Task: structure prediction
Amino acid sequence: MSNPTRVVTGEVRFSYVNLLKPRASQLGGEEKYSVTILVPKSDFATKQRIDAAIEAAKQDGKSRVWNGVIPPMVSIPVHDGDGVKPSDGMPFGDECKGHWVFTASTKVDQPPKIVDANMNPILDPTQIYSGMYGRIAINFGAYANAGKKGIGAYISTNVQKTRDGEPLGAAAPDASEDFGGAAPINVQGQMPYGMQQQPQYGQVPNQPNYGQQPNQFGQPQQPQYQQQPNVQMPYGMQPQQGYGQVPQQPQIDPITGQPIGGVYGL
Result:
């Protein structure tokens, strides 16, 4: 017998992918596997199945969760990607345009099973990322939480990647951007002739000791750098951000507006 609250989608696009490792919101809470699902508005069949499953979940929730009464205002998980986010009233991202958008999750003891287009398990974690295309099995269910009543979307075990897509989110910088301007280092790890190594933070150079034996040019030996002991910062003072560094921004769920943390695809 088929489950009226369960839907297997047509091809969708995945965003905010946390399918390989469960994550908790930075505001706290239970760790979960999760993914945001973008259903093309042209896929009428999938949207009809989703609508029917939500209605079936309401009927199930009436007797099982809501004490025999369907609430007059039931929160629905599916949103219009051409509209605004219910969390903050801001427009959805460009990748959501022309799509129905919702987020589904599952508990840490129910990890998703991810396969490729040929039904083979995907073992390479780099193949699972935000922006790829695929299909997913979703179960819709009623909830009552802290006075809020609605229908939630839950990953029903199986996820299939059908093809690659343009990754969503910030990409890692090219190696030349990180190392192109660095001073060359010879094979022994020493700085080239004529280039001095700068003292590190917390180090002070020893002053030349003119009582030392001069070098071959009759000059005092070059100063050595002496490590200063670690110094604790006074209470309430934090070390400053290094030049050129950018504070890492939290990953934000496009629907709830809450940070969800993590690196895309992990």
